[in-house]
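just leaving the lab so this will be short. what follows is a protein written twice so to speak, once as letters and once as structure tokens for the fold. can you read through it and tell me how you think this chain folds. thanks a lot i owe you, the record is right below.

___
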Amino acid sequence: MIRSMLIRILLVCSVLSLSGVAACSAGQPSVALKGETFTVDLALTREDQARGLMFVEEMPADHGMLFIFPNESRRSFWMKNTRIPLDIMYFDGDLALVSVSENARPCVADPCPAYPSAGPARYVLELNAGMAKQLGLERGDPLELLFEP
């Protein structure tokens, strides 16, 4: 099901691109948060979710990673093998902000600290550290998916 969703996203982006609409940012999905748009890599499979942004040396300010889970549950992330500090934003099934772990630092020694959600989440957005503060995020802020999930 997740693979078919990704194929649909790519098809929608291709059709929009052919018709002159630049809605998919060079074929990649995007999200909007507090009026700002971010191009996101999708972490849909367990393997993608386990790898996340490991070993990424830098990320453009308008990029991030969106983790999409099949259901709402309390989530917890860690920063093992992650090289850049991140803001980790947890959203429920209605795409409302549940909580933020600001400035999660790369892990330098085992065991790595965990960054848990304050409540059940279905979507998790990782952006460069400092973005949550810059956007002035508050609990309940909506995340908009600019692609067909």
Remarks:
- The helical segments are 2-18, 46-51, 131-135.
- The first strand starts at residue 30 and ends at 33.
